[in-house]
Design a protein that fits this description.
This protein is of the alpha+beta class. It is built from four helices and six strands; from the N terminus they run H-H-H-E-E-H-E-E-E-E. It is elongated and about 75 Å long.
Length: 146
């Protein structure tokens, strides 16, 4: 009876020793995806945005407006939403097996179509979800930094 218990205890310790490395690898992947998102928003690229975003996206702006995947990408590619000097900082990640929550500060110059240029300073929460073997952005909410 002692041998199976010892075996399973050793097996559990063996697998648990890989968890921190797995979490670190996933966090690095997510930071890379966040940078890819930032780049695709600064210089809008429809294909890259499509690859990063879930079909179920709900994208909340700091003014309460909600976008879907289609409206978000359309607004970015058409220039209706336009960022210059887009910077993400103070990135934090909460990682679960199928979901990740990333928070960051977004600073940029907004050059939205039909509006005066404006400085943007936001706190942003992004929710990424596993779809197959890929992480996809499924939700975003921003609030103005006061």
């Amino acid at each position: 009876m002692v041998k199976p218990l010892r075996f399973y205890s050793c097996l559990m310790l063996f697998f648990c020793s890989f968890l921190p490395a797995f979490a670190q690898d996933e966090a690095l992947k997510l930071k890379g995806l966040l940078e890819a998102l930032r780049s695709a928003m600064q210089d809008p690229d429809e294909k890259k945005l499509n690859d990063l975003i879930s079909a179920q996206l709900t994208y909340g702006h700091s003014n309460g407006v909600l976008d879907t995947k289609e409206s978000f990408i359309s607004n970015m590619v058409s220039g209706k939403s336009n960022f210059d000097d887009l910077e993400f900082s103070e990135i934090s990640i909460v990682l679960n097996p199928h979901t990740a929550i990333l928070r960051h500060i977004l600073k940029a110059k907004s050059l939205d179509e039909g509006k005066e240029p404006a400085l943007v300073n936001l706190k942003v929460m992004l929710v990424w979800s596993r779809e197959g073997d890929k992480w996809k952005l499924i939700a975003r909410q921003a609030v103005k930094v006061i």
